[in-house]
Amino acid sequence: MEATNFAKYLSDFFAKYLPGERNVSHNTILAYKDTFVQFITFMKEQKGIGVQKLTLEKITKETVIDFLEWLQQSRHCSNATRNNRLAAIRSFLNYLQYENPERLFEWQKIISIKVKQHQKKSINYLTTDGIKLLLEQPDIDTCNGRRNLALLALMYDSGARVQEMIDLTPSSIRLDSPNLVKLVGKGRKARMVPLNEEQIVFLKKYMQEMHLLESHANLYPLFSNTRKVKLTRAGITYILKTYADQARKINPGIIPETISCHSLRHSKAMHLLQAGVNLVYIRDILGHVSVQTTDIYARADSKQKRDAFEKVYVEMKPEKSKDKSWEKDDTLLEWLKNLKK
After folding, report:
1. Contact at 8 Å (CB) between 274 and 131?
2. CB 65 within 8 A of CB 73
3. Is 68 a member of any domain?
4. How many C-alpha atoms does 121 have within 13 Å on its Cβ side?
5. Is 37 contained in some domain?
6. 236, 258, 280 — which closes off a domain?
7. What is the pLDDT of residue 334?
8. d(C-alpha 152, C-alpha 243), whole Å
9. Interval 110-155: pLDDT, tens
10. pLDDT at residue 24 tops 90
11. How many CB atoms lie under 10 A from the CB of residue 309?
């Protein structure tokens, strides 16, 4: 059976364009793959077009809009998820603009589909007391407890994404002064993040115990399970939530009800901001492309907002006077009249 042009271009998009020309992460490729699995399912169930007959000519602006509506109405996807699916389709069509320019006008029409506004969730982070309480929960009398303490402490101290933690190897860590960790983030961009000396104490003991300081272990996973396989997202999330639940029983006021691995990243950013660290440096530590992304922490920090208001506060006590008021102030009236000119 002869492959359709859709199958050919989609295969090249995933096998060559995304990992080669765009150098996107493995997680982005998986997310895009999910989008097209859903799109192919939609075309079969809703349009009666099986994947064997699905060609580029069948992909129109109207079809894509129908697909996005189906996601929200039948699969109950949020606006944010709908926008993510649209982003994946746009990426494919940006690729097709050069590989299949015969239908350039149609590709541009689809790319012009607007994203939907969605309410952004507030930043979920822990106070310094909350972080301290969380890190007191692992049982350091056990091997897993020592690993988990090193893991959570490093994830907070470096502000790393969970995938960046999963991909770490012993060669990523510099234990000599200055202490550093090399993180490889989105777009496979590497950055060096300084580490606190207290963090290095936990980490070095853990690495010694697991024989990760030996030269042959340089490329082993830094954090692995009992089978020496690197931890998964689900595994790290489970570890975090287990200790968060324990800490919440001790002091529910400083441990949020909802917590994720990204909460530790948010916490580090907020604590750096509250300590007076410039947003440009926080951007570099977090691996953001633009400082505008990092600016969300400045907008979310209510303490800094309150302090700023207090610094510029001027007590106003208008003097009551029967003889003089703003209505009788000739200078002010003249200025107001001039506004119309």
Report:
1. no
2. no
3. yes
4. 11
5. yes
6. 258
7. 63
8. 10
9. 999 999 886 666 678 899 999 999 999 999 999 999 999 999 999 9
10. no
11. 9
Domain at 247, CATH number: 1.10.443.10
* Sheet architecture: strand order including 190-194: 173-174, 180-184, 190-194
Count Cβ atoms below 10 Å from residue 127 Cβ, excluding itself.
15
pLDDT of 317 above 50: no
**Alpha-helical segments (H) within the chain:** 5-12, 26-47, 61-73, 79-99, 104-111, 128-135, 143-158, 162-166, 197-209, 233-250, 261-274, 279-286, 291-300, 302-312, 330-338
Gap between the Cα atoms of 220 and 229, Å rounded: 9
Query: What contacts 19, CB < 8 A, 6 or more positions away?
Result: 29
Of 202-211, 242-251, 266-275, 302-311, the one with minimum mean pLDDT is 302-311
| Range among 41-45, 264-268, 274-278 rated most confident | 41-45
User: What are the b/e assignments for 32-51, b being 16+ CB within 10 Å?
Assistant: beebbebbbebbeeeeebee
- Mean pLDDT of the region 330-334: 60
What is the pTM (predicted TM-score) of this model?
0.67
| 215 within domain boundaries | yes
Partnered with residue 173 across adjacent β-strands are 181
Residues of the domain holding 220:
132-258
Active site residues: 161, 186, 262, 265, 288, 297
With tokens 């029967």, the residue in question is 322
